[in-house]
Every structure is written in structure tokens, then in C-alpha cells.
Amino acid sequence: VRQDGYYFPAFITALAILPVEVDFISFDDVKNKGLSGYDVVISDGIPGTSFSGDKCWSDEKLVGKIREFVDNGGGFIGVGEPSGYQYQGRFFQLSDVLGVEKECNFRHFEKRDNIVADSAHWITEGINLDKISFNNIVRGVYPLSAKTLAMHYDDHYPLGWQNAGHVDLAVNEYGKGRSVYFSGVSPCNESYRLIYNAILWACGNEAEKNIVYSSNPNVDAYYYEDKKMYALINSVNEEQTTEFYDKSGYKSIIELKPKEIKWI
Fold first, then answer.
1. Per-residue pLDDT tens digits for 178-229
2. Count H helices, E strands: the chain?
3. Model-level pTM?
4. How far apart are the first and last CA of the chain?
5. How far apart (Å, rounded) are the C-alpha atoms in residues 160 and 38?
């Protein structure tokens, strides 16, 4: 596995533990069936592999279906080098949707503004980005229309130099829809919470956040409909306190011992 492969499985883990329903679909599914019924599409895979898509992204029908989906209000989340394939003068074939593009030395000498990150955004509320390692192996990604929330500079090519910096996290609006770009994230509780926020924001469901929800990334909250009970799980070896919201949005303060599961 390549070094940067470390940053891709975090999304699979997050989807397994978050309160979301997931389907794995192929590029042919998108072209032949469309994306009706879905809220968010996630493209996550190492460039050049079947997971990422490679030359599939040169298919105009495929990218057209995704553009139509987002333009009509859907969400798109891209990880690493999403829709990455050098074709017709661009690398990210969905750069207009993502609001970012990757420099592949075709426009290296065109002067762009320095990339400056502003982490203030709905998806970063309550998130300590310092606890998340982004994939700094992904280089040369720069903003077009997107807002940059996190980025990194090379030590030898810092802020102030022409075209310096690499985007790690960015948000963009496209038609009635939204997109989020990640270079990749390390597998940790803070990352999983950031991914959840990104999913909710991308599909315009921010109001769903404080429903069966724990404000502490180290505490997971679940609701079991048949038993009418909640389970709060402390996933770390330290005592934790969290704001817990039930399915009606009522807030209470819950304290948990290390690794404790508390039923309510």
C-alpha cells in the first residue's frame, strides 16, 4: 500500500459507524440509473486505481450526471484526487463542482493568489483540526471558487511565494448543491465527526445534526427504535463529558467513565 493510502480508509470507517445509509455504486450505475434518491455522492480512492476511476472520468455522460445531481441540490464529497484524469485541459474533471483544481505543471507559471485558509465554517464547528492529519502527499491542489478551510505549505516554499500552498479541505457551492474537498484525513474520532458534518452540510441537512447526537467526538450516540433506548459509548480510556441530544433535540449533560457504555 502506498504511503498516502493511509488517508483513504478513514471515510470507509466513518461511514460504518455514522448514522447514515450507504450504497456502493459503480460508474455504470451513475450513467445508467442516475443518482435520484441519494443525498450525497462520495468519491474516495487512490488516483489511478479502479476506486478512483482514472479514465472513466473522461466520460461526458458520467460527469454530466454528477453535475446535474449537484446542480439540482445534491452533495458531492471528493477525497484525494477526485475525478482526477488529465483530459481536455483539466485534471479534476469536476473542478467546477469541487471549486478546486490540481496543478499538473500546465499552468505552473500563471500567477495565482496565495492560498490562505479560514477554518470558520459550519462543518468545522466543534472540531479541533489540530487533531487531524491531512494527506500532505496530495500536492498542488489550489482553489478556484471554493473556500479553503485547511491547507499546508512546503517548508522551502512558504506563504508569500508565488502559487505557494496546497489545499487540504475546502467547501464550494454549485447551483443548488454543495461540495466538500478533502486531501484525505487520518483515522481518528475528530476526523469521523468532521466527515459527518461534511455529509450533513453537503446535502443541506444541518438541522439533522442535533438529533441523537453527542457533541464530544470521543462519545458515540445510538438510538434503538425497538427498545426505545439510547446507547452512549465512550471510545477512549479517559472520563468524558458530552452534551447529548435525543431524537427530539432535547439536550442533557452526560458523564461517562473510561470505555463506558451508558444506556438511557
1. 999 999 999 999 999 999 999 999 999 999 999 999 999 999 999 999 999 9
2. 5, 15
3. 0.91
4. 42
5. 42
